[in-house]
Amino acid sequence: MRYLSTRGGITPIPFKDAVMMGLADDGGLLLPETIPTFTPEELESWRGSSYQDVAFAIISRFVDDIPAHDLRQLIERSYATFSHPGVTPVVKKDGVHILELFHGVTLAFKDVALQFLGNLFEYILAERNETMTILGATSGDTGSAAIHGVRGKKGITIFILHPEGKTSPVQALQMTSVLDANVHNIAVSGTFDDCQDMVKSLMGDLEFKKNYSLGAVNSINWARVLAQVVYYVYAWLKVAAPGQKVIFSVPTGNFGDIFAGYVAWQMGLPVEKLLLATNENNILTRCITSGDYSVGSVVQTLSPSMDIQVASNFERYLFYLFDRNPARVKEAFAQLKAEGRITFNSGETARMQQKFCSASVDREQTLQTIGNFLAETGYLLDPHTAVGVRAARELAAGDTPLICLSTAHPAKFDEAVIAATGKPVPVPESIAKLQGLPTRCDRLPADQQALREYIVRTMTAS
């Protein structure tokens, strides 16, 4: 299996090189040359299997340069850290199947991919006797999950950027209370989009990237998406009858999580629709419903991990929407840079609507959904999951099983939950012990040159 760029500017490369490259050297995103498929019979043979066995069955189809025994060990080690034996269990509440993705070390869905990616990095670096510098941006959960995935790992230094004051207090503490020498937190005076732009700018400087062995943990790294494909298949096996189609509702900001669902669908998973749920930062909803992909200003909401305008992983889907035409992809992103929008023709919009439906959920609707769902079912939703549940109730009808991705534990967003329910949130021990810990964080303006100088200064001093 080899990997190519959405912008067509690299010679296809093997999986391990794709993991280490992160962002493609031509500025595009990496994808497999073909998406492997499974048959209905193969899918049924996995029913009753452990999460780890399903993960190996899926991931191994994309990886042919890591021995099977080693890949199994990487998967086993990655999910041994999860607090639930099922890793991503499914619970049914009021006709809705909640896929709980928050049983990892930082209580967010990003742990599923980043525990695996951290172990992958360590394995490849040891094999090659190399070091790397990880550079990432976060709107909240990616940063803490990435830090906990690589903290203390030999040969890895990590720099994580987050928008200052725009994550939840718990998200900030989960990052800044990690004092390992290889971890560097940076609070940026700006938005997540500013952080993401700074990272992509430096990753696109090939000389700097080579000199400092830059690697990516954001969902621009293909291995992140690949690891997330697994739980779509695992959830289907827990919920659906043989051959039965389902609807997945996915709270969405950067399009990585829902793109993993798209990949699972293309592999052969019976899916009726992917429901894309946004908060007030609704560029993706506007795009799906009317073809309007025009960048606005980032709105700070109750669901900060979705406070994004430019969704990086949307480029991967556009590669397929544009019939795998790199020239059309480059044209689209040149227009986005020049005009702040991408224009779609009516046929392209219609094709998007065949796969996706979408709804935007505002602050009042989010609070109402958290409160009502708790009253009706006794189950507490975090604000991101509430966006997904609310959108699903608006758009999903009929008897098709509905699976809503629960992307974070509600205790990470206690202010929103208390506002919705008037009740304190039960606090897991992993969050309670963060209070009062010493923290370390540096601050930078939203300027890529300032980031460049910071990295050089830090790496020179180490």
Automatic annotation (TrEMBL):
Q: Does the keyword Lyase apply?
A: yes
Q: Which cofactor does it need?
A: pyridoxal 5'-phosphate
Tell me which UniProt keywords the record has, alphabetically. Answer: Amino-acid biosynthesis, Lyase, Pyridoxal phosphate, Threonine biosynthesis
The reaction(s) annotated as catalysed by this protein in its Swiss-Prot or TrEMBL entry are: O-phospho-L-homoserine + H2O = L-threonine + phosphate
Please give the pathway this protein is involved in: Amino-acid biosynthesis; L-threonine biosynthesis; L-threonine from L-aspartate: step 5/5
Return the InterPro entries for the record.
Answer: Ser/Thr_deHydtase_PyrdxlP-BS, Thr_synth_N, Thr_synth_N_sf, Thr_synthase-like, Threonine_Synthase, TrpB-like_PALP, TrpB-like_PALP_sf
Q: Residue ranges of the Tryptophan synthase beta chain-like PALP domain?
A: 88-323
Threonine synthase N-terminal domain: residues covered: 2-79
Q: Which one Pfam family would you cite for this protein? A: PALP
Does the keyword Repeat feature in the UniProt annotation? no
E.C. designation(s)? 4.2.3.1
Molecular function (GO) terms for this protein are:
threonine synthase activity
Q: So what family is this one in?
A: Belongs to the threonine synthase family.
Q: Sorted alphabetically, which NCBIfam families does this protein's record hold?
A: thrC
Q: What is this protein called?
A: Threonine synthase
Organism ancestry: Bacteria, Pseudomonadati, Thermodesulfobacteriota, Desulfuromonadia, Geobacterales
